[in-house]
Design a protein that fits this description.
heterodimer; A: mainly alpha; two-stranded antiparallel sheet; 58% helix; B: 191 residues; mainly alpha; two-stranded antiparallel ribbon; 63% helix
């Protein structure tokens, strides 16, 4: 807010611009005092002040009675639960997806192995040694891994 | 009572939050209703205010600012709701404040005045009306209004002054306008 020197004589335009805050008592004390002094000597600003006070009274007539919405606490609690529930299926799905996908992968691998498919010779290296329940047999020149289920 | 909530720890557990809802629901609901002018919408937005408050309670920096923080959430929701719909249904204020027992055939002058004030207020831009209500009806200082609205105190002062001027012009025009809807009639207004 613009600050005026102590000896500043307030003009009507400046006074009117501050009357709203003056009525609301939201100005610094020095400015409140200057406006008060101006109002004592200015009839038109006093009329503007009356109008400001009327406006404030009109707005004040709205009343202060509170309106408590029925069961708001219950509604808020339900809304929070619904939001949580809306999020939960996604989380559960993602939690279930990983083991389900792994199971499908394992099953498909087992089926492809049981289906007597050719395997590369690299499977016979120690790093990819066949499991104990599987055995490698030869079918002609092609090694085949058979898994006993 | 409110001091107890405003002094609560930042880690607010559900029972404490429940008490906050209990303490603020009437004020917040009334404030939102005055901004949006629709009973059902105000109820929904009041609920959303507390749901959002619960979700973002950890962002509350100072427990002392609890009241302003709630009003900030409510104001944001109300202003957004205002722009979301092109038309809002106006409901008579007699459904709310202290007027439920008022005779429909002979409403008193106070009820009519309040509704004309409310109708005039509803024609203001929501951000201006919010500033006005926050100060005049909810009792916040200009600085607190500025904090709630996310503007400077000087901007808040100007916005409140303009809102008063605009409100008074609309109100005066409404008083002289014979076609103004009666206080107990529902009117549709275009945003």
């Amino acid at each position: 807010m613009k600050r005026y020197p102590d000896r500043y004589i307030m003009q009507c335009a400046q006074c009117e611009g501050c009357l709203s805050a003056y009525v609301d008592e939201q100005l610094p004390p020095a400015q409140m005092r200057r406006i008060g002094e101006h109002l004592q000597s200015c009839r038109s600003c006093r009329a503007a002040l009356r109008r400001q006070r009327e406006t404030r009274d009109l707005l004040g007539s709205l009343g202060d009675a509170g309106w408590a919405p029925p069961d708001l606490r219950l509604r808020v609690a339900l809304a929070l639960r619904q939001q949580d529930a809306a999020r939960r299926p996604v989380a559960r799905r993602s939690r279930l997806l990983v083991p389900a996908f792994a199971a499908v992968l394992a099953l498909s691998a087992a089926i492809s192995s049981v289906a007597v498919g050719p395997i590369s010779s690299s499977l016979q290296t120690p790093a990819f040694a066949p499991p104990s329940h599987a055995r490698v047999v030869s079918h002609g020149r092609t090694p085949i891994m058979v898994i006993q289920l | 009572m409110l001091e107890r909530f405003e002094a609560c720890d930042r880690t607010c557990d559900p029972p404490t939050f429940d008490a906050i809802v209990e303490a603020y629901q009437a004020r917040i609901a009334r404030y939102i209703f005055r901004l949006v002018g629709d009973h059902e919408l105000a109820l929904d937005l009041t609920q959303d205010t507390f749901v959002n408050a619960y979700r973002s309670f950890h962002t509350l920096r100072s427990p002392l600012a609890l009241s302003a923080w709630l009003y900030r959430i409510a104001t944001h929701l109300a202003v957004q709701a205002r722009w979301r719909g092109s038309r809002l249904k106006w409901q008579a204020l007699t459904n709310l404040e202290n007027s439920r027992s008022a005779a429909i055939d002979a409403p008193d002058a106070g009820v009519i005045d309040r509704e004309m004030v409310q109708l005039a207020l509803a024609k203001l831009p929501r951000d201006r009306a919010a500033c006005l209500l926050l100060h005049v009806k909810e009792g916040f200082s200009y600085e607190e209004v500025a904090t709630i609205m996310g503007i400077s105190p000087e901007a808040a002062r100007k916005r409140i002054a303009r809102a008063k001027t605009q409100f008074r012009a609309v109100y005066d025009a409404s008083v002289q306008d014979e076609t103004l809807p009666g206080p107990l009639h529902h009117a549709m207004r275009t945003v």
